[in-house]
C-alpha cells in the first residue's frame, strides 16, 4: 500500500437511514482527505450531516457505500480486535462532555485505561500527565458537578487523549460554552495539535472557532460537501451562498457597515461621494492606498471603519471609506483600486458619480 500523509481519507461515502416510509440520505457521496497534523473544520447547519460523517471515521457509523481509510488502514477490512485498537487512536469530545458524575476527574480520565496493560502507578502517572496538559492538576480529586463547563470540557479532552490518539474529533465541543471559555478551549486544542502532532477535526457551526484555529475547512449542506478550501480562501473569497452566510457571521466588518449605513451623513450622502468597502489580501496596506488616491486623483478618502485580521499569518484587510471628489476623478480612483487587486464593493453612491459610472454595484 502506498503510504501518504493523510490521517483521514474518506472516499465516496454515503450514509442512508431507512425509516418506515422513507429513506434519509444523511451523507451523500462525500470524499474527504485530511492531512496528518491538520486542524480541519467541518461546518454546516443543524442536520447537514456533519456528525454522521465524522462518526464514519471510527465506524461508530457504518457507511452504506464508500471507503474509510484512517492512517493508511482500511477500516472496513479490520477484524474486531484490530478495529478496537484503531478506534482507541481516534479520540472524541462532545458538546455535553459525557462525564461520569459518580467518578472524580482522575477516575474519568483513567476510565478508558481500565482494560489496558498499565499498572495502577502507570495509570496514575498518565492521569497526572494528562491533567497537567489540560491545566487541571489541582482538580484531580474533584467531581464533575463541581466544575465549570470549560473545566468539564478539559476533563473530557484529557480523557479523549488517554490512549494517545493520533486524531481528535471535536463534535460541537465548544457550543455550550461562553465566548471566553470557548476561546480558551480552542487555544488548548491548538496547543495540543502542536505539542502532540494531533490531527484535529472540528465540527462546528461557529465560524469564529474555525477562524481561530483551523487550517482548512469544508462546508456541508444536505449531506454533501459544497465547498472546501484553506482558511484564507474560505474567509476571503467564499464561493457558495451557504459559505458566504457562515463567513458573514464571523465578519465584524459587516456589523460595522450596518452601523455606518445608519449614520445621518451616510443616509444623505453628497452627490460627489461614494461609500465603498475595500477588501485586500496580503501585503497591500491602507496607507499607500489612501495617499495614492489623493496624490493621483485628488480624491479624498475618509475611513469610517476598518480592520486587519490575520488568517494563518496572511493579513486580510477590510476598509469602509467614503471617497469624495470630482466625479470623473472618483471613477478613475475606483479603477486604480481594482488594479491593486483590491476588491471594491460600492455600498452607496451619490448622484454625480452614479451618472459617470452607471451606479452598478460591484
Ligand atoms: N440514527 C439515525 N437515524 C435516522 N436518521 C438519522 C440518524 N442520525 C442522523 N439522522 C439524520 O441524518 C441527518 C444528518 O444528521 P447529523 O446529526 O449528521 O447532522 P449534523 O450536521 O451533525 O447536525 P447537528 O449539529 O444538529 O447534529 C439528519 O436529517 C438527521 O435527522
From TrEMBL:
<dbReference type="GO" id="GO:0016887">
    <property type="term" value="F:ATP hydrolysis activity"/>
</dbReference>
<dbReference type="InterPro" id="IPR027417">
    <property type="entry name" value="P-loop_NTPase"/>
</dbReference>
<keyword id="KW-0813">Transport</keyword>
<dbReference type="InterPro" id="IPR045865">
    <property type="entry name" value="ACT-like_dom_sf"/>
</dbReference>
<dbReference type="InterPro" id="IPR018449">
    <property type="entry name" value="NIL_domain"/>
</dbReference>
<dbReference type="Pfam" id="PF00005">
    <property type="entry name" value="ABC_tran"/>
</dbReference>
<keyword id="KW-0472">Membrane</keyword>
<dbReference type="InterPro" id="IPR003593">
    <property type="entry name" value="AAA+_ATPase"/>
</dbReference>
<keyword id="KW-0029">Amino-acid transport</keyword>
<protein>
    <submittedName>
        <fullName>ABC-type metal ion transport system, ATPase component</fullName>
    </submittedName>
</protein>
<dbReference type="InterPro" id="IPR050086">
    <property type="entry name" value="MetN_ABC_transporter-like"/>
</dbReference>
<feature type="domain" description="ABC transporter">
    <location>
        <begin position="8"/>
        <end position="247"/>
    </location>
</feature>
<dbReference type="InterPro" id="IPR017871">
    <property type="entry name" value="ABC_transporter-like_CS"/>
</dbReference>
<keyword id="KW-1003">Cell membrane</keyword>
<keyword id="KW-1278">Translocase</keyword>
<dbReference type="GO" id="GO:0005524">
    <property type="term" value="F:ATP binding"/>
</dbReference>
<keyword id="KW-0547">Nucleotide-binding</keyword>
<dbReference type="InterPro" id="IPR003439">
    <property type="entry name" value="ABC_transporter-like_ATP-bd"/>
</dbReference>
<keyword id="KW-0067">ATP-binding</keyword>
<dbReference type="Pfam" id="PF09383">
    <property type="entry name" value="NIL"/>
</dbReference>
<dbReference type="GO" id="GO:0006865">
    <property type="term" value="P:amino acid transport"/>
</dbReference>
Amino acid at each position: 500500500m502506498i503510504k501518504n500523509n493523510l490521517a483521514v481519507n474518506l472516499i465516496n461515502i454515503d450514509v442512508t437511514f431507512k425509516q418506515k416510509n422513507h429513506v434519509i440520505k444523511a451523507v451523500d457521496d462525500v470524499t474527504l482527505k485530511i492531512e496528518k497534523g491538520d486542524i480541519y473544520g467541518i461546518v454546516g447547519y443543524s442536520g447537514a450531516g456533519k456528525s454522521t460523517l465524522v462518526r464514519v471515521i471510527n465506524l461508530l457509523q457504518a457507511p452504506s457505500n464508500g471507503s474509510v481509510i484512517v492512517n493508511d488502514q482500511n477500516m472496513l477490512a479490520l477484524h474486531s480486535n484490530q478495529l478496537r485498537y484503531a478506534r482507541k487512536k481516534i479520540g472524541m469530545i462532545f458538546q455535553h462532555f459525557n462525564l461520569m458524575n459518580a467518578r472524580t476527574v482522575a477516575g474519568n480520565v483513567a476510565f478508558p485505561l481500565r482494560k489496558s496493560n498499565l499498572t495502577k502507578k502507570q495509570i496514575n502517572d498518565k492521569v497526572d500527565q494528562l491533567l497537567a496538559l489540560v491545566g487541571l492538576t489541582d482538580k484531580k480529586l474533584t467531581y464533575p458537578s463541581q466544575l465549570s463547563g470549560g473545566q468539564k470540557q478539559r476533563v473530557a479532552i484529557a480523557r479523549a487523549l488517554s490512549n494517545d490518539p493520533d486524531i481528535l474529533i471535536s463534535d460541537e465541543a465548544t457550543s455550550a460554552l461562553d465566548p471566553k471559555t470557548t476561546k480558551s478551549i480552542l487555544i488548548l486544542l491548538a496547543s495540543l495539535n502542536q505539542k502532540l502532532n494531533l490531527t484535529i477535526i472540528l465540527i462546528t457551526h461557529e465560524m469564529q472557532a474555525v477562524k481561530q484555529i483551523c487550517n482548512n475547512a469544508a462546508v456541508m449542506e444536505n449531506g454533501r460537501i459544497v465547498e472546501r478550501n484553506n482558511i484564507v480562501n474560505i474567509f476571503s473569497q467564499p464561493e457558495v451562498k451557504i459559505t458566504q452566510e457562515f463567513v458573514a457571521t464571523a465578519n465584524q466588518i459587516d456589523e460595522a457597515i450596518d452601523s455606518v449605513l445608519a449614520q445621518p451623513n451616510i443616509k444623505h450622502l453628497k452627490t460627489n461621494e461614494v461609500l465603498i468597502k475595500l477588501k485586500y489580501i496580503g501585503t497591500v496596506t491602507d496607507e499607500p492606498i489612501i495617499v495614492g488616491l489623493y496624490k493621483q486623483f485628488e480624491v479624498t478618502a475618509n475611513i469610517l471603519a476598518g480592520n486587519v485580521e490575520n488568517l494563518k499569518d496572511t493579513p486580510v484587510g477590510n476598509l469602509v471609506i467614503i471617497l469624495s471628489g470630482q466625479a470623473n476623478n472618483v471613477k478613475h480612483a475606483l479603477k486604480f483600486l481594482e488594479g491593486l487587486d483590491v476588491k471594491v464593493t460600492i455600498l452607496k453612491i451619490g448622484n454625480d458619480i452614479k451618472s459617470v459610472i452607471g451606479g452598478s454595484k460591484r
